[in-house]
Each structure stands twice: as C-alpha cells, then as structure tokens.
Amino acid sequence: MFGLRLSAERRRLGLSQQQVADRLGVSRSAVGMLETDRAALEVERLLKLSEIDYDVLKVLTDEPARLAAGRLLDWQLVVDVVERVTAWEQARGLRLPSEKKALVIKHLYLRFAAQGVVDKQALDETLQMAA
C-alpha cells in the first residue's frame, strides 16, 4: 500500500535504494521489500525517513504535506486573526508592509492555535512591537 509512494519519494529525492538502506541501517533488499509492500512500514523507519527529507504525509496519505497540513489549520481562527490585525491597522491609520503583516499573522495564529481563540492583549502587544 505504501510501497509505491515510498519508491516515488526516494526517486523524488534522487536517492538509490542503497543510499536509503545505509541511512536506515538496513539492507538494500529490505528497502526493496518496503517499496513492494512485502515488509511492514514501522513507525521508527518512517521517522528515520522523515529525517532524510521524505514527505511522510505524502507516503501515508498520498497527499503532499503542505496540502495535508492546510487541512489541519483552524481556518476560522486564521480569519479571526486576519480580521483583527486589519481592524487594528485601520483603527491606528497604519498599514503594515504585506510581508511583515503575513509574518505577524502567522506568529499570532501559532500563538493562539492551542487555545483556539485570540487573546486580545497578546494581539495588541505583538502588533505594537511589529508597528
């Protein structure tokens, strides 16, 4: 099931089966068995593959990590952060440069993601520093 995707990832990275085997500490034939679904893909091996830049989410889901990660975002929180940053700018007659605004929004989203809500005081403090 995962074998074809493992093989595709290895080829995308320009690695031979032997190079992957060396990094995993297994034989080349063990890599071949993984790529043909004749051996189980263990979590430890998957973690080691991630260390050599395999897109593990692509291997597991057949969906690139960036796309899969986007599905995990709390989009309502993203919208809330963007709206509050924009309102903050407008209330002060300011306009942050787009690159800086994007970084601030990313920072704020990551700061608030665990709680799932915007902390107004933290938002104001962050924006004061960014302005």
From TrEMBL:
<dbReference type="InterPro" id="IPR010982">
    <property type="entry name" value="Lambda_DNA-bd_dom_sf"/>
</dbReference>
<dbReference type="GO" id="GO:0003677">
    <property type="term" value="F:DNA binding"/>
</dbReference>
<protein>
    <submittedName>
        <fullName>Helix-turn-helix transcriptional regulator</fullName>
    </submittedName>
</protein>
<dbReference type="Pfam" id="PF01381">
    <property type="entry name" value="HTH_3"/>
</dbReference>
<dbReference type="InterPro" id="IPR001387">
    <property type="entry name" value="Cro/C1-type_HTH"/>
</dbReference>
<feature type="domain" description="HTH cro/C1-type">
    <location>
        <begin position="6"/>
        <end position="52"/>
    </location>
</feature>
